[in-house]
Q: What sequence folds into this?
């Protein structure tokens, strides 16, 4: 049986983190190896609320950490992936602490990896009626526009590149240089590009869209420009005009580290 780690990215989610935890299916809560809450130096009481929940529910498999410094959306993911590698887990599930992505759908996303049918699975809002779920029209159109360009450049047929509901094979993560990627929000698109270059199997599952009252920390125009810049960097690398280490998959050696070996980026327990 594959060892599954669920990690929840949080930043100022004191009002939603308990709900997100309780929406994880009971069977999955029992079967998963660990649930990690990675709080990225929230300014509210997210960390304290999560610790209180852990104590009240006596959840030994729930680990709650708070970064001493804000690592950024991508940087926080890097920490979690390294954590999964160091613990020797097989699968890493990413859930957001704001509840925008339905934790109830996690088993559907897990299935292809548990059955060894994929290396990476993401929940697609585009195939799940996003406008009915409250996705703003400008975000829907922007998503379609960027995804179309990304598919053309990468010769893929994905319905979107920008969903934050994801499940990764830890083995696949060990075979790509994700440490070279951005610490910001476009990390999500960059890592898909790496997985495509590494010829990993990618699957997608439709998920419902929910836009509540959560605060968006993503500025759409700079985000879109960053994605286009990323694609330009990839094309320059592909055509051997300018080398990019983040996309140099062929020369990246698989990390053959043992579980619990010190992680690469200096993120030690005392530095959370």
A:
């Amino acid at each position: 049986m594959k060892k599954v780690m669920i990690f929840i990215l949080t930043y100022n989610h004191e009002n939603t983190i308990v709900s997100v935890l309780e929406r994880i299916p009971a069977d999955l809560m029992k079967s998963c190896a660990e649930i990690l809450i990675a709080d990225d130096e929230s300014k509210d009481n997210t960390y304290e609320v999560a610790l209180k929940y852990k104590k009240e529910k006596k959840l030994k498999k729930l680990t709650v950490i708070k970064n001493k410094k804000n690592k950024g959306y991508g940087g926080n993911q890097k920490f979690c992936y390294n954590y999964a590698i160091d613990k020797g887990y097989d699968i890493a599930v990413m859930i957001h602490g704001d509840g925008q992505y339905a934790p109830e759908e996690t088993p559907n996303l897990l299935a292809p990896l548990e059955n060894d049918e994929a290396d990476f699975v993401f929940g697609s809002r585009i195939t799940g009626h996003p406008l009915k779920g409250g996705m703003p029209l400008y975000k829907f159109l922007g998503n379609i526009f960027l995804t179309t360009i990304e598919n053309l450049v990468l010769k893929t047929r994905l319905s979107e590149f920008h969903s934050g509901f994801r499940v990764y094979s830890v083995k696949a993560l060990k075979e790509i240089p994700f440490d070279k990627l951005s610490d910001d929000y476009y990390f999500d698109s960059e890592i898909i590009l790496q997985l495509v270059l590494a010829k990993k199997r990618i699957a997608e599952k439709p998920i419902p869209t929910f836009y509540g009252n959560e605060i968006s920390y993503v500025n759409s125009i700079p985000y879109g420009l960053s994605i286009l810049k990323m694609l330009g960097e990839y094309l320059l690398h592909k055509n051997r005009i300018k080398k990019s280490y983040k996309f140099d998959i062929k020369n990246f050696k698989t990390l053959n580290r043992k579980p619990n070996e010190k992680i690469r980026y200096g993120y030690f327990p005392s530095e959370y």
